[in-house]
Specification:
175 residues; mainly alpha; 2 domains; binds zinc ion
Amino acid sequence: MSDEYNGWKNRETWCVGLYLDNDHGTYLETQRATARGLVRAADFANEYPEVTLNVYRHVGREIEGMVQEWRDHLEEFGAPGSDVEPGLLSMFLEIGSLWRVDWDSIGVGKLDTFPVELLTAKSAGDLVRSERPLGAPLPTCPDCGLAVLMDADDWHFCDWRPVAMDVLGLGFDDV
Ligand SMILES: [Zn+2]
């Protein structure tokens, strides 16, 4: 079954994934939703560093909210001043209902080149000790490679935004 839809979970999910990238306008809005999802995930990690972080789910939820908002505005289509894209109409006609869409895997698809572990909070025990020719070995973050000095009850957060800007082409100015 998954082969039938290029590895996507089902027809609805495949269809949404296709439409999100199909049109320049929806692509840009999806990029913004992805950026918002990453910021939400990072906020969550800051607030609950000890809880397992599902970055894909945060991004999937933002994209789901965006698509639901599009659907809510569909009735304005054709009205003066409406900015509903004609392509969206065909998307909703083709998908039917949204409840079968697997938003987590939409998030996975959007983040395919991004190392999501950068957003995970690292405790002192997660750091690796790298040997130096002189002096004590330096605790280093396994994900961003930064040397980190912190207390046992501190958390380290990698600088993930430059990576997201670089590999995903995201912007964070209006997030
Ligand atoms: Zn790091």
